[in-house]
Amino acid sequence: MKGGDRLDEFAGIRSWTEDRQKHSWQEERGVVRGIGDDAAVVQAVPEAQGAGASEAWHSLITVDTMVEMIHFNDLTMLDEDVGYKALAANISDIAAMGGIPRHAVVTVSVPPSYSMERVKRIYDGLYACASQYNVAIVGGDTTSSPSHLVLSVTLTGIIEAGRSLYRSGAQPGDAVFITGLIGMSAAGLDYLTKLPERARGTQSHRELAAAAQKLADTDGAGALVRQHRRPQPSVTAGRLLASLGYCHALNDVSDGLASEAWELAEASQVSLVLNEYSLPRSTSLQQYAKQAGRNPVDWMLYGGEDYILIGTIAESNFEQAKEELNRQGIPLYQIGRVEAGAPGVWMYRREGSDRTAIPKRGYNHFSESNR
């Protein structure tokens, strides 16, 4: 921490977490004992979920980590965005199973360059996301870090026994669908990485990140930057798809459409054949791609961090599923179909063309290009 605002670990935890979520609010979400003891105590399934005594539920557990200079820097995100996105990434994993997110524990490793106020703002974002998705934050850990901030969140969820949706359920003859727009987050990051010289001239992290958003709004890329900084996990879509009973496979788009489609194909031992002309595109994505001299499909296939869902469903049930989701204001786009064959992903670039193989790549933390 910076010199004058150094606190001990427990004082820091109290400063960042105290009075954030009312005791009664946490109780409604099954929290018996939250932050303050060696471990949290939670109910297996809270009464607020409407679970009957005879209904069986399964637990879901996931973890995600954000590392400064790998996932974010002073230009790409505000401190609040870092906290928000760290929890949102976990919530998206629960959504991809069809589940309900419930309890989170947070670990933060803080370098000397960070003030207490900056860490507090990270927790502001965490709690904002938690409030939006009804997640109770029940504990965690704090440590020092030699140079960069590391934020890790572990999240639990629940789902009715037998309803979990896996990557391995895709069947030949299924429609391949997505539940929203893709490529916007990657385009937003591309915009931000090209801004350093234009956004400099301000000193503080906060001023720098705010200047980047202002420039993005002026340039017509504001929606792309906001999507990168504050992606919206698809919990409602996941719950609806799980409740239908005929969705066969599901995954979230965190590392790019191509990567997630390959995961479905390999887990299910099938081929996914996609149609480029069926991929939905936002106006802001197309406009920025034209300005940048890029093909927007590159961001759609290989960008990631959109947190919409990709899955498969019997083609005979697709229109019914689309109507169900549309009633809740959620789009459902058919972007291809599943075929028998060796695991792989193919794409028709235009109607009537030959299909081409889509390489198995997306965001990879261990790629040389990401170091």
From TrEMBL:
User: Which residues are involved in binding substrate?
Assistant: 71, 305, 363
Recorded metabolic or biological pathway in which this protein acts: Cofactor biosynthesis; thiamine diphosphate biosynthesis; thiamine diphosphate from thiamine phosphate: step 1/1
Q: Where does ATP bind?
A: 123, 140-141, 167, 254
Q: Which residues form the PurM-like C-terminal domain?
A: 171-341
Q: Which reaction does it catalyse?
A: thiamine phosphate + ATP = thiamine diphosphate + ADP
Quick one: which residues bind Mg(2+) 5? 255
Q: Fetch the Gene3D superfamilies from UniProt.
A: PurM-like C-terminal domain (3.90.650.10), PurM-like, N-terminal domain (3.30.1330.10)
Q: Which residues bind Mg(2+) 3?
A: 38, 93, 252
GO BP, sorted A to Z: thiamine biosynthetic process; thiamine diphosphate biosynthetic process
Q: According to the UniProt entry, what is the EC number of this protein?
A: 2.7.4.16
Gene Ontology terms, MF aspect = ATP binding; magnesium ion binding; thiamine-phosphate kinase activity
- The EC category is transferase
- The UniProt record gives the binding positions of Mg(2+) 4 as 38, 62, 93
Q: Where does Mg(2+) 1 bind?
A: 64, 141
Q: Does the keyword Magnesium apply?
A: yes
Q: Which residues form the PurM-like N-terminal domain?
A: 36-159
Binding residue positions for Mg(2+) 2: 64, 93
What NCBIfam families does this protein map onto? thiL
Which family does this protein fall into?
Belongs to the thiamine-monophosphate kinase family.
Q: What does this protein do?
A: Catalyzes the ATP-dependent phosphorylation of thiamine-monophosphate (TMP) to form thiamine-pyrophosphate (TPP), the active form of vitamin B1.
- What is the official name of this protein in its record? Thiamine-monophosphate kinase
What is the source species? Paenibacillus roseus
